[in-house]
């Protein structure tokens, strides 16, 4: 690929999705964009870049979506979800006892494994949630991956990566070679396409935010900007979950790690000094 | 070092599983059918059993039921690993005391996440 084409693509991707594409990742352009080029009948990426330079908005969107990494598993890393169930959820039940509602946001929901993991946990705890209203919102830049999330149908390979077997039996039905999630679980999650670089305010406010395994693709100023906008949407005692390779340290002072709980952060709000939803009891 | 007994009548599968498990720092033992596996457990209970379903002499589910009756036989974490992939088989396995269930084909990623879930790995 010509250096000016690479530069054009990498700048476009950074502007549109925050993706930082270094030269050593140039091979990703070939493998992920050739299918897009072929679908349009182009011979190669050169034609594709020419068309992008002509301000083809649809193509620019397709290219941006095609460059996202959508890998996800149910109960990814196990511990954050144990922590949610054992600490944050009981705290929520106490802290919101009069209001009896809470909102959870999965900010990079991908194919739905993360929001459905949370929905299954809420199902498991249904007895304690009687009379409660809870929302789970799943957003992602990619419309295509969200439509997969919405369908809630997974391959045998996907349901084996992280989903405990009892949960599979309880919440999935086999349909040919695929596994379909229980409509009662599926309907607990709302999906909406949303770019994290956009204004996030219209999404409303949240008690718990999962923003896992997406900041890794951004440069530092973008990480800071996104983390600070998430902090604005969180309740005073709200918590944020990041992926295993992500941190707020040195990036945003609007969050503080919760001692002894990896990957979970307490939002810092001026004038609030009460307990965080992430604080272990006792 | 934790031990895992690999029970499968296919030598190839045993080899693949052995390689993955050794990379995960398990000491491995092998058995080609349920009867041989039961004998091995009577000698020394392993920490984990990776268990095929269809095997000659004694199949996986019969082995599991016998294992759970043995003194100390409740201890090993048993993970089925079979081509049987319908809800009925999975349910039968859970009822017989299986801790987890892998549907073949599997890879090291699946085996590893399943072993994490049942607490064999952190
Ligand atoms: C690796 S997946 C993470 C899925 C899930 N959170 C998890 O941890 O398993 C990353 C997702 O982030 C999405 N993404 C990338 N850039 C984004 C942006 N600027 N705004 C919203 N979503 C974005 C991608 O489309 C992809 O589905």
Features:
heterodimer, A: 282 residues, alpha/beta, Chemotaxis Receptor Methyltransferase Cher, domain 1, three-stranded antiparallel beta sheet, 10 strands, B: 122 residues, five-stranded parallel beta sheet, 5 strands, globular, binds S-adenosylmethionine, Two-component system, chemotaxis family, response regulator CheY (chain B), Sig_transdc_resp-reg_receiver (chain B), CheY-like_superfamily (chain B)
Task: Characterise this structure.
The complex is a heterodimer of chains A (282) and B (122). Chain A has helices at residues 3-17, 26-39, 45-53, 57-66, 79-95, 113-124, 143-151, 156-159, 165-171, 183-186, 220-233; strands at residues 101-106, 133-140, 153-155, 172-175, 178-181, 189-193, 206-211, 234-242, 255-258, 261-267. By secondary structure, chain A is an alpha/beta fold. The mean pLDDT of chain A is 96. Chain B is an alpha/beta fold. Chain B starts with a strand and ends in a 5-residue tail after the last helix. The complex binds S-adenosylmethionine (SAM).
């Amino acid at each position: 690929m010509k250096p000016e084409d690479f530069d054009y693509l990498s700048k476009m991707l950074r502007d549109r999705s925050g993706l930082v594409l270094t030269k050593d990742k140039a091979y990703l352009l070939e493998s992920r964009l050739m299918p897009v080029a072929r679908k349009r009948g182009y011979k190669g990426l050169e034609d594709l870049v020419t068309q992008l330079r002509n301000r083809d908005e649809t193509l620019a969107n397709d290219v941006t979506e095609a460059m996202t990494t959508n890998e996800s598993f149910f109960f990814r890393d196990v511990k954050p979800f144990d922590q949610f169930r054992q600490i944050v959820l009981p705290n929520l039940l106490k802290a919101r006892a009069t209001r009896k509602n809470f909102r959870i946001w999965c900010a990079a929901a991908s194919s739905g494994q993360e929001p459905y993991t949370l929905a299954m946990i809420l199902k498991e705890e249904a007895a304690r949630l009687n009379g409660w209203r809870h929302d789970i919102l799943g957003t992602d830049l990619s419309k295509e991956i969200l439509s997969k999330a919405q369908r809630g149908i997974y391959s045998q390979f996907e349901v084996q990566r992280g989903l405990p077997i009892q949960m599979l039996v309880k919440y999935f039905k086999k349909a040919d070679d695929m596994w379909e999630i229980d409509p009662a679980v599926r309907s607990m999650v709302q999906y909406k396409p949303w770019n994290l670089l956009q204004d996030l305010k219209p999404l409303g406010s949240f008690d718990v935010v999962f923003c896992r395994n997406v900041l890794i693709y951004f440069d530092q100023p973008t990480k800071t900007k996104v983390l600070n906008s998430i902090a604005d949407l969180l309740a005073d005692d709200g918590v944020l979950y990041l992926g295993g390779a992500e941190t707020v340290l040195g990036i945003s002072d609007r969050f503080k790690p919760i001692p002894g709980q990896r990957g979970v952060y307490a939002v810092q709000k001026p004038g609030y000094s009460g307990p965080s939803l992430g604080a272990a009891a006792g | 070092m934790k031990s895992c007994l690999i029970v499968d009548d296919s030598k190839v599968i045993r080899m693949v599983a052995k390689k993955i498990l050794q990379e995960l720092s398990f000491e491995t033992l092998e058995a080609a059918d349920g009867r041989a596996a039961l004998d091995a457990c009577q000698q020394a209970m392993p920490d984990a059993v990776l268990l095929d379903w269809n095997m000659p002499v004694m199949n996986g589910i019969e082995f599991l039921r016998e294992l759970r009756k043995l003194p100390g036989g409740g201890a090993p974490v048993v993970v089925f690993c079979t081509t049987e992939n319908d809800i009925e088989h999975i349910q039968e396995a859970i009822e017989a005391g299986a801790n987890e269930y892998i549907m073949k084909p599997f890879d090291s990623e699946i085996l590893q996440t399943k072993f994490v879930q049942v607490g064999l790995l952190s």
